[in-house]
Design brief:
single chain; alpha/beta; globular
């Protein structure tokens, strides 16, 4: 009998589909990258998802964030994303957390209940804490590196943090992970050199196609990891 996941099941099989339905993923940061991660995960069959972000949609998000429309401005991103998820799959179970993840808020989260964690936040301290908490819980994690000031989405790569280059954020994370003895951290990063913005402002420039591609790459890697035991 046909259902909304039939086309995916044709590719990966019923056993893999059941794994996705049962998997629980936490996405920290529901912005340009994280929003597309969530979108692809939900459309792929992930039915248990936690959304963590304390931001609201603003006008400058409309050029790149999948949840950003004029009707969602000033609404919490996690609330808008939850409504979108349930509109795609009414059977989904969505937990929203209106907070920014930092070392001070880590105790609000039990990583042992997650099958996968997505780091799509901006702060180095938050990213490091996410990695350490995931490692302590034995939970898989994938981290997004810098997607701002980029124009070429074909230059994204999946790598261990120790093997990254060019990306300034990846360089800082690589150094900080080495200091802490943290190993085996999967990241998505770009080898493209940063584009110099035409106007000097205190936030990075971005577009519709670079963050979205990073998010879709992350989602695809999660799906493949989750079903690897039945779909080599």
């Amino acid at each position: 009998m046909l259902n909304q996941f039939s086309r995916t099941e044709l590719l990966i099989g019923e056993d893999a589909m059941q794994i996705l339905h049962k998997s629980h993923v936490a996405v920290f940061g529901v912005g340009g990258v994280g929003g597309y991660v969530v979108e692809a995960l939900v459309r792929s069959g992930i039915q248990h998802i936690d959304l963590i972000d304390n931001d609201t949609v603003n006008l400058t998000n409309l050029n790149r964030q999948i949840i950003a429309t004029h009707s969602t401005i000033d609404k919490y991103k996690v609330d808008v994303m939850k409504d979108r998820i349930l509109d795609i799959n009414p059977q989904a179970e969505v937990n929203v957390h209106k907070c920014f993840y930092l070392p001070e808020t880590k105790h609000q989260f039990d990583f042992t209940k997650y099958d996968y964690v997505v780091d799509a936040i901006d702060t180095v301290t938050g990213k490091l804490q996410l990695i350490m908490q995931a490692k302590e819980a034995g939970t898989k994690i994938i981290c997004a590196m810098g997607a701002g000031n980029k124009m070429d989405p074909t230059q994204f790569e999946i790598a261990d943090i120790s093997q990254t280059s060019v990306c300034p954020l990846a360089r800082v994370m690589r150094q900080e992970c080495k200091k802490r003895g943290i190993k085996d951290v999967k990241v998505v990063y770009s080898k493209e050199k940063s584009v110099e913005p035409k106007i000097k402002v205190d936030f990075p420039a971005s577009n519709a196609f670079v963050p979205s591609v990073a998010g879709l790459i992350i989602a695809s890697e999660i799906i493949k990891d989750l079903i690897r035991s039945v779909y080599p």
